[in-house]
Amino acid sequence: MDILVGTGLLLLVLAIFTLFNYKAPHGAKAMGALAAAACASFLVEAFQSAFFGKVLGFKFLSEVGGANGSLSGVAAASLVALALDVSPVYAVMIGLATSGFGILPGFIAGYLVSFLVKWMEKKIPGGLDLISIIIVATPISRFIAQFVTPVIDKTLLTIGEILTASAKSSPIIMGIILGGTIVVVATAPLSSMALTAMLGLTGIPMAIGALAVFGSSFMNGVLFYKLKLGERKDNIAFAIEPLTQADVTSANPIPIYVTNFVGGAACGVLIALMQLVNNTPGTATPIAGFAVMFAYNPITKVLITALGCIILSLISGYLGGLAFKNYKVITKQELQARNN
């Protein structure tokens, strides 16, 4: 029952963020900034702390990773404000006020306060706007982050706890659901890093997210090539980071999402059965996701599972290309021609 509740809540969260991305004012820009904040904080933490620190034993680099990871809220608030065209100094003010809070409270505070700051910049005479923003906007930013934190803890983090707890009792089902869902999110305008960070995933679920996304690089490379969605450089970019080709994905959602779900689910089942763990949230990204696994698992076990994910992903990409070979796709070149 818990796995059904956790899955239902996860799908609801995805629906809300998808709606926000497409319908909220500057929603796509804000979600892009959220993904960037996950890179600036959790990706650095994954490499420097989990890999270079724990695996290779560099204490200083571990401190670097811990510093970045602890400031995810500041990064989110600052970057979303910059994405919404707030003056850099005001964006940093908004961000610093959210120090000590997580990535999503910082994101929400930065997004909401950005509209207030832009209004104050426009209405208040030059010279007075700085003082006014210091007095008004910074405490409001921290208040919002403080206000939403308990709500987030009771919803998003609870979802993560449910999924983590149910992973051991239903590993195959969990592998299918999480592997498929997180890999699809990795190709969508949302961010798999941001999603797993917001949910606070650890253990087997985070391992599923990390290695399934790692495998998806090989799957998407084959799929992009088989469907002739773009040139070689576009193919390579899509394999390394699907978000760089978000326009192609949005134009061809059925073949890309279906193939990615199947391949991600297959990898998820394998990872769950191998009982790999990953205790660094937010590492659902190809390179860092693979590297950080060595911090928590035997080297041989990681390499065998990663090889299995590569094979499953290559097969999924090839079969997806065959299944949708007669599907009318819109190529990168066609999209660029339309824009021009």
Describe this protein's structure.
There is one protein chain. This protein has 340 residues and is mainly alpha-helical. Helix content is 79%, strand content 0%. It has 16 helices and no strands. It has helices at 2-23, 27-55, 59-69, 72-83, 88-96, 103-123, 128-166, 171-187, 192-199, 203-226, 232-240, 246-251, 253-274, 286-292, 299-323, 332-339. Helix 13 runs antiparallel to helix 15 (299-323). The chain is globular and about 65 Å long. The termini are far apart. The model has no long low-confidence stretch (mean pLDDT 83).
Secondary-structure blueprint of this entry?
Elements: H1 2-23, H2 27-55, H3 59-69, H4 72-83, H5 88-96, H6 103-123, H7 128-166, H8 171-187, H9 192-199, H10 203-226, H11 232-240, H12 246-251, H13 253-274, H14 286-292, H15 299-323, H16 332-339
Helix pairs in contact: 1-2, 1-7, 2-3, 2-4, 2-6, 2-9, 2-14, 4-5, 4-6, 5-6, 5-7, 6-7, 8-9, 8-10, 8-13, 10-11, 10-13, 10-14, 10-15, 13-15
The coarse overall form would be globular
Order of helices and strands: HHHHHHHHHHHHHHHH
Low-confidence stretches: none
Compute the number of helices: 16
Distance between the termini: 51 Å
Helix content: over 70%
How does the major sheet shape up?
Answer: none
E-strand count: 0
Q: Give me the secondary-structure category.
A: mainly alpha
- Radius of gyration, in Å, reads 20 Å
Average pLDDT: 83
> What share of residues are in beta strands?
under 5%
